[in-house]
Amino acid sequence: MIQEFVNALLEPPTVLFTSLLVVVVVYWLTVILGIFDLDLFDLDLDLDVGVDGAMEGVEGALELGDAPEIGDAGPTGVAGLLTALGLAGVPLTVTLSFLIVFSWFLTYQGMRVLPLLDLSGGLIRWLLLPVVSVLVSLGLTSVLVRPLRPVFRTVPAASRQDFSGRSATVVSSHVDREQGRAEIDDGGAGLLVEARLVSGAPALRGDQVTVVRYDNDLDVFFITRRDESLQ
Predict the structure, then answer these.
(1) pLDDT, tens digit, for every residue of 48-71?
(2) What are phi and psi of 165, to 5 degrees?
(3) SS3 of 16, please?
(4) What is the value of pTM for the model shown?
């Protein structure tokens, strides 16, 4: 029984997907062991925000009977292909893993069924079976990756420019136009930064201040006293 199974795995065209399956298994073992990252072979596609919207737009247009206009903006290249196939929004390695596993399984099962149907001719075996297996696998993979998209969606890190208007607390003895430090309320543990006062008397330790702007060249946040910001 085991020998028959091994022979089936090494029999063309199943051997093609068996080879790819070995690569998938080795890759995921390295991910589990921490040798490689999950997105090692990703194509750095910024699809998290655009995929769902693009897919919903296409589906909505199809439901209304309208075809998307040629000039409509949307993902292009590899990103556009993955979006069109419904495979975007998750790491490429996850998508390929599902695709290879399904293709291998369908090809393996097909090679067992074709002789029973007396359909094991060369054209069906070498061309039609692999093509059908891949096409069906694309559909199955598309269905499976949809609920996984929220798991892999990333939220862009806040830019320091985004802290303008935030509250902060002076943590050094004082903050004036020359020196000082403050802790910005970032919604988490707080962000300790170099701070400089825009104008007025120095702000003392514990004073509540407001972030006015961030100077990228100086890597300094300019702040104003809370009472002055309310004027």
Answers:
(1) 434 444 444 444 444 444 444 444
(2) 90, -10
(3) helix
(4) 0.52
